[in-house]
Amino acid sequence: MKLVSGGDLEGFIEKLAPDVVMYGDGGGKAPAARTPIHGREQVARLLRGLARQAERWVAEVRPAEVNGQPGVVAHDRDGNLFGFIAFEYADGQVQAIRSQINPDKLRHLR
C-alpha cells in the first residue's frame, strides 16, 4: 500500500525529523501502539509495518486536512471510515504523527 494514492512511503520517511514522535489511538478496540514511538528509525519501521498490514483492511487512503494539519484519511473496503493520520511539520520535516483508529472516536465522523 502506498501512504497516499500515488505517494511514496520511502520518500515520506526521508522527511521524518530525527526526533519524530508517533502517537496512536486504537482505544483498545483497534491495533495501535500503546506508547509513543520515538525516533526516525523506529517510526519508519512502524510505518512500513503498518503499510503492509493496511493492505488487509484499507481500500483507500487519500490526502486530507486533519485538525488543521496535513494528513490522510483511510476507508475500508465497504467505504467506512477506518481512521486518519495527521502530520505535524516544522522546518520542512515531520515532527509528529498522530494516528486515530479508535472506533469510538471516529463514530461521529461517519
Architecture overview:
This protein has 110 residues and is α+β, with helices and mostly antiparallel strands. It has a single domain, classed as Roll (Nuclear Transport Factor 2, Chain: A). The protein has helices at residues 9-13, 40-57, 103-106; strands spanning 16-25, 37-38, 58-66, 69-76, 81-90, 93-100. The model is unreliable at 1-6 (pLDDT under 50).
Biggest sheet: strands side by side, in what order?
2-1-6-5-4-3
Name of the CATH architecture:
Roll
The main pleated sheet reads as: 6 strands, mixed
| Average pLDDT score | 86
CATH class: Alpha Beta
Quick overview:
With 110 residues, the chain is an alpha+beta fold. It has helices at 9-13, 40-57, 103-106, and strands spanning 16-25, 37-38, 58-66, 69-76, 81-90, 93-100.
Task: Give the key terms.
alpha+beta, 110 residues, Nuclear Transport Factor 2, Chain: A
Q: Could you give the topology of this structure?
A:
Blueprint: H1 9-13, E1 16-25, E2 37-38, H2 40-57, E3 58-66, E4 69-76, E5 81-90, E6 93-100, H3 103-106
Parallel strand pairs: 1-6
Antiparallel strand pairs: 1-2, 3-4, 4-5, 5-6
